[in-house]
Write a structure and sequence with these properties.
alpha/beta, Oxidized Rhodanese, domain 1, 12 helices, 9 strands
Length: about 250
């Protein structure tokens, strides 16, 4: 009996150490950013609104937990996810939280359902729609993330470029927008803006990382010729800061 229990106990201790590495919201934010592609420590600090020192500290913990892998190039250190299992684990954690934690369900309803209460497009439905040539898929992430990988056939229109790109979108097709994940505000805001201009628009239920983790059709490379390059998305950073403030106020109530 002892021989069979002891190895299991040791494995559970290691799994508990892995789970402990996730027990900090900034680390979850870093993993979401890395699920878009490899990034330097400085880039991650800017995207997640953290200091470089704090970012490095969290990345070291995630590295010890097996979630990320570093790569050094000169004086720069880059990180990437250790595998698609990380994305799958985060997705499972999000689903469990939404279904069984009342506070999460309330936050989702307050901050996301109020922007878009229509049923989003599932991955399987999007696959079917793409075969009919009846939809246009837009990736509203910054261009650097689009180049690293995107849904096959998607057009890159970062949110802060959407208003001037509207004339290029056909009105006789439904527009499907996606971004970094289910809690990324970019797709919500893009869909809202499109509907205000009379377009039929919905968002993809998940983001690109979940699409990639299922090994669905994707490609990488530059944005469409003639498209204005997208620097770091100012609106994305502002949305992240605003959401963090709102959630912080909610916790204090």
């Amino acid at each position: 009996m002892t021989d069979t229990i002891q190895p299991k106990r040791l494995i559970f201790e290691q799994l508990a150490r892995v789970a402990k590495a996730l027990a900090q919201p900034n680390r979850l934010d870093l993993l979401e950013a890395l699920s878009q592609g490899e990034r330097s420590v400085e880039e991650l600090a800017r995207i997640c609104l953290l200091s470089v020192a704090n970012t490095s500290h969290h990345l070291q913990i995630l590295r010890d937990g097996g979630f990320v892998v570093p790569r050094k190039s000169g004086v720069q250190v880059y990180y990437r996810l250790s595998g698609d299992e990380v994305t799958a684990l985060l997705s499972a954690l999000q689903r469990m939280g939404e279904r069984h934690i009342a506070e999460i369900e309330q936050l989702v309803r307050r901050h996301f359902a109020t922007i878009d209460d229509l049923t989003p497009v599932s991955q399987d439905e999007l696959l079917r729609l793409l075969r009919t040539d009846q939809v246009v898929v837009i990736d509203v992430r910054p261009e650097s993330e689009y180049r690293a990988g995107h849904v096959d056939g998607a057009i890159n229109i970062p949110l802060d470029h959407l208003s001037r790109q509207l004339p290029s979108l056909p009105r006789d097709h439904e527009i499907i927008a996606y971004c970094r994940g289910p809690y990324c505000l970019l797709a919500f805001e893009a869909v809202q803006a499109l509907r205000e201009q009379g377009y039929r628009a919905r968002r993809l239920q998940e983001g690109f990382p979940e699409w990639k983790a299922r090994h669905l059709p994707l490609t990488s490379g530059p944005a469409d010729p003639g498209q204005t390059p997208s620097p770091a998305s100012r609106e994305d950073l502002e949305a992240r800061a605003s959401l963090k403030k709102d959630i912080g106020r909610g916790r204090k109530r």
